[in-house]
Specification:
It is found in: Cell membrane. The protein is an all-alpha fold. It has one domain. The chain contains 14 helices and no strands. Helix 7 crosses helix 8, helix 11 crosses helix 12 and helix 13 crosses helix 14.
Length: 340
């Protein structure tokens, strides 16, 4: 028992401690190369009206995400009011600031418990939600490569080891071997005739997970779901693009530069970190550098945009948890009244 507890502790330290250490190290590495006083001077030039408008658009991106998830859940007969879904999205991003990736698990647990639904089914719908984001980023990356391929070539020339590492990962036989082995394991789980209780439990969990994932293929309102996807990512892009107008050194760069910055910063969010702290900054500073923005100026831009977004997520998270607490009290009160 003690050994199991020690192993669980080590796994949690690795899972949640590593992103914190990575974020701290990347920020330290990055900002030791920046003239802090010069960066402060650039920050003083910021027009915060544009930052405020960008933050308002950011709120709408979360609401659209809740509305898109609602379509998937409704197709699973998990009919959830919009408010709890919005709270779950706000809470997810707030939790991810402290524990990367834990927010997605939390929102699945919250909705499953509130609606008295199967957790694995709700979790499967969340996985599908996130997979849609991955596909969107891939499509944006490919499109942007054709629009501004010189930016990606510059990235490969400046960071040849990273660029080659990405190519090696994609073509690695080990990666494809794991994919094939996983597929074969799934086939065995669903075709083998066994009475082993653990295999049966795993089989049911996978089936429930797949149910939540595969619902996108048969759900109604697919057009509206796609429209919400465009709205989500349109808001993401616009909040960054509008931030360009907040600084004199980025307001003239144009939409292509904003698109390159947006795509590379979105890709960087795949690296486990606390709300993008570290990887997001590096991606933004590098992207702006391609278009002639100095290191200190780019660092000021990244610091203000990320800092404002983080403050907003904290506030939205507090609002969400207050809303959830009041909602729980209201539901409990109604249940007691119905009993009486």
């Amino acid at each position: 028992m003690e050994k199991k507890k020690s192993m669980a502790l080590l796994r949690n330290l690795f899972k949640y401690g590593l992103p914190i250490v990575l974020s701290a190290w990347l920020c330290y590495y990055l900002y030791t190369k920046v003239d802090i006083e010069a960066m402060k001077e650039e920050i003083s030039k910021c027009n915060y009206i544009w930052i405020g408008i960008a933050l308002v658009i950011s709120i709408f991106s979360h609401i659209f995400r809740a509305m898109r998830w609602s379509i998937q859940l409704n197709a699973l007969n998990i009919r959830t009011p919009l408010n709890p879904l919005v709270w779950s999205i706000f809470g997810t991003y707030a939790i991810n600031l402290i524990f990367p990736r834990l927010g997605e698990l939390w929102r699945s647990i919250y909705i499953a418990k509130r609606q008295d639904s199967q957790f694995t089914t709700v979790f499967g719908s969340m996985v599908c939600d996130r997979l849609a984001d991955t596909v969107t980023v891939l499509l944006l990356t490919v499109s942007t490569f054709f629009i501004a391929n010189s930016a990606f070539i510059a990235f490969g020339e400046k960071y040849p080891e990273t660029y080659q590492g990405i190519l090696n990962t994609i073509s690695s036989p080990w990666v494809w071997g794991v994919v094939v082995a996983g597929a074969l394991l799934l086939v065995w789980l669903f075709t083998s005739r066994t009475t082993n209780k653990w295999v049966l439990k795993v089989r049911k969990a996978v089936a429930d997970l797949w149910e939540g994932f595969a619902v996108i293929g048969r759900m109604p309102h697919k057009g509206r779901w796609l429209l919400y996807t465009v709205a989500i990512w349109g808001c993401y892009f616009m909040q960054l693009y509008l931030a360009f107008f907040a600084f004199p050194f980025t307001e003239h760069l144009g939409i292509v530069a904003a698109l390159v910055t947006f795509v590379l910063s979105s890709v960087s969010m795949g690296i486990p970190s606390n709300g993008g702290l570290g990887p997001w900054h590096i991606a933004v500073i590098f992207s702006l550098g391609i278009y002639g923005v100095g290191m200190n100026q780019a660092a000021a831009f990244a610091m203000i945009v990320w800092g404002a977004q983080t403050c907003l997520l904290v506030l939205l998270g507090l609002y969400a948890f207050i809303g959830i607490a009041l909602d729980k009290r209201s539901v409990t009160s109604k249940q007691q009244q119905s009993i009486n």
